[in-house]
Design goal:
With 325 residues, the chain is mainly α. 75% of the residues lie in helices and 1% in strands. A two-stranded antiparallel sheet has the order 1-2. A hairpin with a 2-residue loop joins strand 1 and strand 2. Helix 4 runs antiparallel to helix 6 and helix 8 crosses helix 9. The two termini are 30 Å apart.
Length: 325
């Protein structure tokens, strides 16, 4: 019987607490302790344990891999906040605001080194495969972030370009976490690739749902400001398709809202949402994210283990795909 996700979370928190981060120089290590204690669901490291539980369980190797993934993920958060000039992260002051820019950069760099040290503790005979997945995932996340920054100032961005960007920035870390857990469990190459595809498709649906909920979500359930992407002119799946699909009149109005520097935020969100409704991007986005979720469930069905072993992974997929309902 696989260990419960509650136990996985407890193991992750215990391992994080055991990290040697109380040392000199405090200016380097204190920001790392700070970002790691801001909370979060620890979904990516938990996926390592869940994927591993489908095959041969190895809690110790999974714990080290989970720490590596969580350290890397939080490194990206510190640096993303710097690039976005964000004042808050999970309702708390961001690292670069609490300390300074240089400290944020250096502490983030140190987290990557510590992450690799955790991977190095894994005793699996397939450590080279694990390194390959971790390294490929890490560089792809960085590529995705660069594309995201490019698109902020790039006038022409295709829908396909956007989908590739969110695959790199969001989906591959979910997919890579699952594949690492599977490799630790001595999964076959086919099952490892299938569980990777499951995570990739689930991650794509997850990000498209984020785009969707930014416009159509319940503010209390979504946990973010509704219309934030519209206010900031963020190039999302909805906006890029609206530019393609809108009538000439609606496209003129949409581009006017995008170019307007002086506007009432509520008025802009309402006006742009009405354009989205008229040109059908609400239905298009809902259909596209369901396509990704359907692919993910198909991948899950194809993993060559018993249905009983898949219960936790199926529950995770259900949680992600139904969070707007």
């Amino acid at each position: 019987m696989p260990t419960s996700t509650l136990n996985f979370e407890k193991i992750i928190e215990q391992k994080l607490a055991e990290l040697s981060l109380v040392k000199s120089p405090v200016e380097l290590y204190e920001p790392i302790r700070y970002i790691l204690t801001l909370g979060g669901k620890r979904l990516r490291p938990q996926l390592i344990f869940i994927a591993n539980s489908l095959f041969e369980e190895n809690i110790e190797d999974c714990a080290n891999a989970a720490l590596a993934v969580e350290l890397f993920h939080n490194f990206t958060l510190i640096h993303d906040d710097i690039m976005d000039n964000a004042p808050l992260r999970r309702g708390k002051t961001t690292v670069h605001e609490k300390w300074n820019l240089n400290t944020g950069i250096l502490s983030g760099d140190a987290m990557v080194v510590i992450a690799f040290a955790q991977i190095n503790k894994i005793k699996s005979a397939r450590i080279r495969e694990i390194y390959d997945v971790f390294n490929t995932t890490a560089i792809e996340v960085c590529e995705g972030q660069q594309f995201d920054m490019n698109y902020e100032t790039q006038s022409e961005v295709s829908v396909d370009d956007y989908l590739e960007m969110i695959r790199l920035k969001t989906a591959v870390l979910l997919a890579g976490s699952l594949k690492i857990g599977a490799i630790i469990g001595n999964a076959s190459e086919q099952d490892g690739n299938t569980i990777y595809s499951f995570g990739e498709n689930l991650g794509m649906g997850f990000q498209l749902m984020d785009d969707f909920l930014d416009v159509y979500g319940d503010p209390e359930k979504f946990g973010k400001q509704i219309g934030g992407d519209i206010i900031s002119n963020k190039k999302t799946y909805l906006l890029l398709n609206a530019i393609k699909m809108a009538s000439a009149e609606d496209k003129t109005e949409l581009l006017k809202w995008i170019d307007n520097k002086d506007f009432n935020p509520k008025e802009k969100v309402l006006a742009v949402a009405k354009i989205y409704n008229r040109c059908g991007v609400k239905e298009l986005t809902a259909k596209k994210m369901q396509e990704y979720y359907d692919k993910a469930y198909k991948n899950l069905d194809e993993i060559d283990v018993s249905e009983h072993k898949k219960l936790q992974l199926r529950a995770f997929a259900d949680m992600v795909s139904k969070r707007a309902k």
